[in-house]
Amino acid sequence: MWRWGLVLIVLALGCTGCSGFSYLLQAGRGQLALINHAQPIEEVLKDEKVSPRTKALLAEIVPIKNFGEAKGLKPTSNYTDFVKLDRPAAVWVVSASRALQFEAKEWSFPCVGSFPYLGWFNRDAARNFSKDLEAEGWEVDLRGARAYSTLGWFKDAVLSTMIAEGAEALGELVNVVLHESVHATVYVKGQSYFNESLASFFADRLTLDYLSLRKGSKSQERLVYEAAVLRGREHTQILSAAYQELSQLYSSKRSEEEKKLEKAKVYSRLKTKLELKREINNATLIQYKTYNTGESEFQELFVQCGFDWARFLAVMKKLRPESFSRSQQETLREVLAPAVQAKCADSY
């Protein structure tokens, strides 16, 4: 639906005291199934049954990783294997929000912190979980995600869902690998807005640089992907405007009934404007915000770091949970301000 369909799945396996046994059980089974079906990419490239197109895209993985590591990403053993899935998404993501305020439901796990969403390997299980949340009074969003990070619990593989059908396939693959690799480099417990928005900021910009380097600034791969980026920015502006309009509505002194009526109009206009086929609600917009927060603050810091990605990421690595004033903090200016004021100095 939108380009921000990437997600961290909570795989708190091995954490003592974790709640949600059924969730953890399906996560473990799903991850084990991927491990059992993984093939080394070097073997896939020799397999005559694999299409030339898929081979060409998989052959880009090593250059993509080298490119990212040269920009400051942590070297890992991720993306050396390939898994062909028989489903349209890697996981199905469930998020929930209050009906008349942007307050996301959070799930907490001792080893990895809190999350405003959960990823399920089985769509029916995700749907059943969504129905339970709706019965509790939550507005729920259910969407497919083509990739996720295990945060170092396992060696992440390239999934067939990460390979798009159209001409934008290379750009999308580059973006996914760079995005998820940021999570392996910088991760702050309980701060999904920061983690996902940082990964999006990094990957969205460097994908275009990679395509220019590998294919040329006027190549079809870059031009097609750049067009997709522009469409994504237009959607972001529309979604941001709707989020702000609804935020003002929810905080107003209007009656609950008036708020519900006006909210329905806002979402109807939004759905028509974006030509969406599925229903959207507060949980949908919260997920959008999770991947699109703090862009101006990140850009300001990147400038202070002399447009040096390695310096920029080195500063990000210094952030800790105590750097934030609350769990799942949406506003990042106060968090990044000290580094900006120190002009990206190592000693900030």
Explained architecture:
Helix content is about 50%, strand content about 10%. About 35% of the residues are buried. It has a 3-stranded mixed β-sheet with strand order 2-3-10. A 3-stranded antiparallel β-sheet has the order 7-4-8. It has one domain. With about 350 residues, the chain is mainly alpha-helical. The N terminus is likely disordered. Helix 6 crosses helix 8 and helix 8 packs antiparallel against helix 9.
Query: Per the principal axes of the C-alpha atoms, what is the gross shape?
Result: globular
Low-pLDDT sequence parts: 1-8, 12-19
Helix and strand sequence: EHEHHHEEEEEHEEEHHHHHHHH
Structural class by helix and strand composition? mainly alpha
Beta fraction: 5-15%
| DSSP, total strands | 10
Rg, Cα atoms, Å: 20 Å
Total count of helical runs of at least 4 residues: 13
Query: Strand order, biggest sheet?
Result: 2-3-10
Largest sheet: 3 strands, mixed
- Percentage of residues in helical conformation: 40-55%
Please tell me the overall pLDDT: 90
Domain count: the total is 1
Distance between the termini: 40 Å
